[in-house]
Amino acid sequence: MTMQSLFLDVKPKAPAIARRFRMQWTDRIRHVVQLGFAAFILYTSAVNSTAQMDATTASIDALCPFGGLETLWRWIVTGGQFVSKTHLSNLVLGLGLVIGVLFSGGAFCGWVCPFGAIQDLMNWIRTKLRIREIQVPGKLDRILRYGRFVVLAMVLIQTVTLVKLWFADWDPYRTLFGLGWLFKFNFAESWGAYAVAIVIIIASLFVERAWCRYACPLGGAISLLGNLSFLRIRRSGDACKGCNVCERLCPVKLPVATANTISSDCIGCLACVSACPRHGALEVQIAPTWFDGIRTWLKRTRAVQKA
Fold this sequence. Notes:
By secondary structure, this protein is mainly alpha-helical. It has helices at 3-10, 14-50, 65-78, 88-104, 107-111, 114-129, 138-144, 147-162, 172-177, 180-183, 187-206, 210-214, 217-226, 245-249, 271-275, 289-306, and strands at 231-235, 282-286. It has a domain at 227-306. A two-stranded antiparallel ribbon has the order 1-2. It starts with a helix and ends with a helix.
């Protein structure tokens, strides 16, 4: 074998190897970050549950940015009072999340949220056990995604009406990471919460990121606000070869291969970007969609002026 033929053999493989390398390391870094946040929440929950005195450490309720949204109305109308179990920390974390979403969209869901990490873990278990994934038909998937907004509306209405964290009694994230099932197990009082958590976890074993896609109220709020995000994943139709690799890897099953701008339902995992075999076909850009409207308006205005 000549040196020339050797290089001819190697070169076609190089892009695929580089792509696999990107995919592996992006995924590893993301999972390490997820593990770090999940470990922190579990640690604070364990300390809070075993503390001899109250307020020794923050509870899981005080460390939830969604609590900032739940208590915001009461804080405004009462001039500084909070819904029970929420604190100033919730508003601070909520504000931080708003800033993060305006900058990077739904990256919180893909890189930070501990319950998102649990769903990724269930997907990993499914692949290792070779359990067949349930593929939700596209039309049904689009309809079910509105479930997040229904749950979000219910949570906010009930919280304002009852002046308490109504969703805390059902929230699967709080049930699992609050560690009440470990330190303060009470089936008679919490059977509903346990049932919801178990159903969601089992559902995530068969439908990837089922909770994120169809029922998470915080995910619904992030999706709405994410429409204003500065960082967006854009697809170039000229560079794309239509291989659909990006769609097969998307954990929330978005139509990446046909979209010009990826939906605000994107969780920012970057699996599609790192897997794309064509340079420039999928890129993370500082390109908010609302700027497209401004650009179009400016073009029309200039055209009218020239006419």
